[in-house]
Amino acid sequence: MKNKKVYRVRAKSLDSQGRGVVSFNHSMIPVPGLLPGELAQIVLYRKGDETLGRILSIVEKSGERAEAVCSWSQKCGGCQLWSLNYEAQLKFKQEQVARLFNTVKNVGSVLGMDDFAGYRHKVHASFGRDGKGRIIAGIYEEHSHRILPVTDCRIQDPRANAIIEEICREMEEYKIQPYDEDTGRGMLRHVLIRSGYKTGQIMVVFVVATLNFPKGAVLGKNLRKKFPDIRTIVYNQNNKKTSMVLGKDQETIFGPGYIEDELCGMTFQISPKSFYQVNPKQAEVLYTKAMEMAKLTKQDRVLDTYCGTGTITLIAAKYAGEVTGVELNRSAVEDARINAGKNHMDHVTFVCADAARYMEQAQAVSSRYSVVIMDPPRSGSNPVFLNALGKMKPDRIIYISCNPATQKRDVDFLKRYGYRIDALQPVDMFPVTAEIENIALLRRGREKHK
Ligand SMILES: C[S@@+](CC[C@H](N)C(=O)[O-])C[C@H]1O[C@@H](n2cnc3c(N)ncnc32)[C@H](O)[C@@H]1O
């Protein structure tokens, strides 16, 4: 830092990743953590292909600056909006959706949280050693393979933070080696902790080099004694060179191999490999709003695509005459079928299939649904799915997305089939990050907004 030139700059706006943008030598430079209107001293640095600014000091502060800031925020990269107060975060998300869809009308006010501390109910930590050889666990520093020992993350369930700290202590005591991806030596690679929001049940998944993990027995026993909410412990084997956390093979060593949680008055079983919203408290807000927008009646035949463990499918079944859920992940479909039974829903069917293939086949046999719900992964859907959907002509489409950019792309595709945006509703599922969840209600006919 000593030899670096210091510049005095003022941020103009935020970019889509929530970084302050300053105009510099005829180009725009992002400065993470700097807010619009703020004057700061910065140095420039390169990260990958990008030149960024690092704040040395803020000369004039924005009134939108957050008061309490996490000490890891500059390094971790997990919370891009760490410097913004919550009200300004919601305003940022609202404006992002309005700008992307080029409409202000019909974008409902983003639904935020009263208290977002510890909202993440899916927590993952990797294990390694620090410079002094001590075992540490945490997340990888942004764009690197260095572990940051973040054991006090404010947005993670505090019980998960405490369990991870305890695992590190036990690893030292019982000489359990962290797994080294480069040498292939060691045992414990990651831990995945999922917790139910309403039930409080905790699932601990040890991601290990091999399922033969004798020291895991004492580790599991000690953890259960200290954290009686642990309902199940699973070993998952992953000794591949991969950025994926979970491997293929696993074994339940304590409890039923899943946890349960409650959403919208219904019970859901969740297995290690099944998708479940990381913020279950807001998931209830999201699903309730989606149902309100869909206005389902007993006359409706509903198709819920990319349905995971059947959360939306089964909530929709409370209002609709008949509902089918489609999902590719076998473990999620198994959970979904059990969840239908747990919630006494016998007018629901789950199909394990690629959503696009299912749509094509359903459309080919003129199977008609009055409402199609879609909630694809971040990458969005694809032309095969969207063409079949357009030809199927449901009255309403509810498109839920955690990536409004791919959602907008897909919505534009559906316009050629006469669909128009009736309403957009952002929901803040990921406070302090730049991630945005958005519901779009599409109908055939004239565009209502603008
Ligand atoms: C964002 S999650 C939504 C899950 C569910 N709607 C919920 O709210 O819990 C997306 C889901 O799509 C599934 N998925 C991914 N690709 C798929 C495909 N080609 N066909 C069907 N499902 C797919 C994933 O396994 C995941 O469960």
From TrEMBL:
GO-annotated biological processes: rRNA base methylation
CDD domains linked: AdoMet_MTases
Keywords: Methyltransferase, S-adenosyl-L-methionine, Transferase
Signal peptide: none
Catalytic residues (positions): C402 (nucleophile), C402
EC number: 2.1.1.190
Highest rank taxon of the organism: Bacteria
Pfam families xref list: tRNA_U5-meth_tr
Positions with a binding annotation for S-adenosyl-L-methionine: Q277, Y306, E327, D375
A GO term, aspect molecular function: rRNA (uridine-C5-)-methyltransferase activity
UniProt entry tagged with the keyword Methyltransferase: yes
Annotated family: Belongs to the class I-like SAM-binding methyltransferase superfamily. RNA M5U methyltransferase family.
Protein name per Swiss-Prot or TrEMBL: 23S rRNA (Uracil1939-C5)-methyltransferase
Organism of this sequence: Catenibacillus scindens
